Each structure stands twice: as structure tokens, then as C-alpha cells.
């Protein structure tokens, strides 16, 4: 994922979000969590990651996603998120240092994708995961515009495409287990638990090892906070984690939606969404 500043994101997202906001009053932000620290979350520490890809393999195993082979046809080696690759480990090499970085949905406390979806196909659940219901989805893809982390993907090659992304293993969490990726990490680079406990553990690492890390827990407050938290020894922006400020993207997008009236953009996507909805309904009937 390319690095994206808050300004760049809002420029791209503004018009699409504005039309989504006009489309229906249902496109309101999910109510803020009563206490996001009680949500389930994950903490990823770049200094402990050895790039073994056990986490991304565990994600495939649990979710049954197709492998993404490299040109040799021998190795599962995705270089970006796709509709079948919900998480991956990338190697960053740069002037500020080298690092592995894991990418997946951040499970924002106040998610832009939920705010952008006009039909509530995406939901922020009480336990923390941001989940997707394909039965509600009309294929408008506003969630893709509304995500500041460039996470949701669309099944372009399917007849009735769906949005895909990491679910934070909501099914496993509901059963009392942890996310498959975190449970398989052999080094402790990726751990899971109550968000508040993860934040406490991360801040203790910063105090105990001040020279090891950039002095910040990414996701504590970024874009209003996320359930997936990062510690890093190289600047977060180098790893593709944008500086989005601390205000939830949903609030900014709602303001934009109130200012712009992109009626031209409103018509096309909604017609297509209607066609998709009808064909899906007829197919199910
Ligand atoms: S990272 Fe994007 S897709 Fe994931 S919860 Fe946040 S806004 Fe939604
Ligand atoms: S939390 Fe689950 S769905 Fe998300 S990356 Fe990990 S294994 Fe995949
Ligand atoms: S399993 Fe752990 S150590 Fe291996 S790549 Fe994933 S996060 Fe890094």
C-alpha cells in the first residue's frame, strides 16, 4: 500500500463520500464504542517479526483464501492485499532502516468504511471486529473510498462480487479463540487480547526500551484509534502507516459530505448498485 497523507486521502475520498452521505441517512457513522479498550485487538511489533509468514499462512488456512503465486508459480508471495490476500508481510528497506511490516484491516474504533457504506453492510461489532455482510452489500464500493488505510478489496472477477478484508477472525473471537494469525506467530511479534491491555503492554515496552522504538504506539489515537496497534523501530510512515491525525475519519468525511453536492457521482454508482442488488436477489430467489 502506498503511503497516504490525511490531505491526500480526503482529496480522493471527499467526492465519493459526499455522494454516499447523500444516498441515504443510513450512512451515518457507527456510534463510538462505549470503551474501545474493551475491544479485542492485536499488537504487532516490528522488532520481533522475523518475516516467517506463518501469520499470513494461518490466515489462508482459516479463511480458505486462494494462494497468490509469484511468477515462478511455486511460491505464495503476494506483494499487496487482494480479494484473496487479507494480510501479508512486506519487507521495507529504506534510509531509516529495514523492517518487516504486516498489513491488514486496522479495525478502526470509528471506521470510515462503516460510515461510508450506505446500507450497513459493514458493521463495527460490540466485540471490536469490523465485519461485512455480503447479503446487504450493493456493490457501490464506497467503503473502499472511505477507508484511510486502503484495505477493502473487491472481487472484480466474480459474477456477484463481494468486498473482502481481514475480519479480525470475528468468528474465532466469538468462540473465545484468538485471531488465527496471532495464535500462530512463533516469536510474539503478533499478539492479541483486550485492546487496553495491549496498549499498556506496548507503552511499557516503550518505557523499558526507549532506544529500540519510535516513541509512539501507532493506532492508540491515530484516525480516532484502531484495534490493531503497532510498535516500530522505523518511522511508521515509511511502513505505509499514514499520518492521519487523531480525529476519526468519519467525522471529517461527514463534514465533506455536508459541503459538497456531487449529484453527478450519485447517479451512476447507485444505478449499478441497483442492478447488482436485483440480480443478486433474483439469483438467491
Ligand atoms: S482499516 Fe479501513 S476497512 Fe478496516 S476498519 Fe478501518 S476504515 Fe474499515
Ligand atoms: S485476524 Fe484473522 S482474518 Fe485478519 S489477518 Fe489475522 S487470520 Fe486473517
Ligand atoms: S508469524 Fe510473527 S514473526 Fe512470523 S511473519 Fe508473522 S508476525 Fe512476523
Fold blueprint:
Layout: H1 6-23, E1 40-45, H2 54-63, E2 88-94, E3 97-103, H3 112-116, E4 122-124, E5 130-132, H4 142-146, E6 153-154, E7 163-164, H5 170-174, H6 180-184, E8 190-194, H7 195-208, E9 228-231, H8 249-259, H9 263-284
Parallel strand pairs: 1-9
Antiparallel strand pairs: 1-8, 2-3, 4-5, 6-7
Helix pairs in contact: 1-8, 1-9
Bound molecules: iron/sulfur cluster (3 copies).
Offer a concise description of the structure.
The chain is of the alpha+beta class and 285 residues long.
Tell me, briefly, the overall form: globular
Bound molecules: iron/sulfur cluster
How much strand?
5-15%
User: Helical element count?
Assistant: 9
CATH architecture classification name of the domain at 6-30 and 47-167 and 236-284: 2-Layer Sandwich
Share of helical residues: 25-40%
pLDDT averaged residue by residue: 84
Number of strands: 9
Which structural class matches the secondary elements? alpha+beta
Distance between the termini: 39 Å
Characterize the biggest β-sheet: 3 strands, mixed
What radius of gyration results from the CA coordinates?
A: 19 Å
Description:
The chain has a domain at 6-30 and 47-167 and 236-284: Alpha-Beta Plaits (2-Layer Sandwich). The protein has a three-stranded mixed β-sheet with strand order 8-1-9. It is of the alpha+beta class and 285 residues long. Helix 1 crosses helix 8 (249-259) and helix 1 (6-23) crosses helix 9 (263-284). Helix content is 33%, strand content 14%. It is globular, with a radius of gyration of 19 Å. One iron/sulfur cluster (SF4) is lined by residues 49-55, 89, 100, 102, 185, 187, 189-190.
Amino acid at each position: 500500500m502506498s503511503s497516504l497523507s490525511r490531505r491526500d486521502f480526503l482529496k480522493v475520498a471527499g467526492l465519493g463520500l459526499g455522494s454516499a452521505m447523500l444516498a441515504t441517512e443510513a450512512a451515518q457513522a457507527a456510534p463510538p464504542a462505549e470503551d474501545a479498550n474493551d475491544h479485542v485487538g492485536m499488537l504487532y511489533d516490528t522488532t520481533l517479526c522475523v518475516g516467517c509468514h506463518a501469520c499470513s499462512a494461518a490466515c489462508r488456512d482459516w479463511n480458505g483464501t486462494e494462494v497468490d503465486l509469484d511468477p515462478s508459480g511455486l511460491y505464495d508471495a503476494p506483494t499487496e492485499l487482494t480479494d484473496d490476500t487479507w494480510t501479508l508481510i512486506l519487507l521495507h528497506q529504506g534510509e531509516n532502516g529495514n523492517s518487516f511490516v504486516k498489513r491488514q484491516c486496522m479495525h478502526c474504533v470509528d471506521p470510515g468504511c462503516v460510515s461510508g457504506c450506505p446500507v450497513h453492510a459493514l458493521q463495527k461489532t460490540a466485540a471490536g471486529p469490523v465485519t461485512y455482510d455480503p447479503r446487504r452489500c450493493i456493490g457501490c464500493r464506497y467503503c473502499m473510498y472511505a477507508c484511510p488505510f486502503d484495505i477493502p478489496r473487491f472481487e472484480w472477477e466474480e459474477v456477484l462480487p463481494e468486498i473482502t478484508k481481514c475480519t479480525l477472525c470475528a468468528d474465532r473471537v466469538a468462540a473465545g479463540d484468538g485471531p488465527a494469525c496471532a495464535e500462530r506467530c512463533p516469536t510474539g511479534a503478533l499478539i492479541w487480547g483486550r485492546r487496553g491491555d495491549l496498549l499498556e503492554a506496548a507503552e511499557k515496552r516503550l518505557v523499558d526500551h526507549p532506544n529500540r522504538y519510535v516513541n509512539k504506539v501507532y493506532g492508540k489515537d491515530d484516525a480516532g484509534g484502531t484495534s490493531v496497534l503497532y510498535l516500530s523501530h522505523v518511522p511508521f510512515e515509511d511502513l505505509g502507516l499514514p499520518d492521519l491525525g487523531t480525529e476519526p475519519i468519519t467525522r471529517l468525511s461527514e463534514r465533506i459530505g455536508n459541503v459538497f453536492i456531487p449529484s453527478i457521482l450519485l447517479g451512476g454508482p447507485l444505478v449499478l448498485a441497483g442492478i447488482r442488488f436485483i440480480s443478486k436477489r433474483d439469483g438467491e430467489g
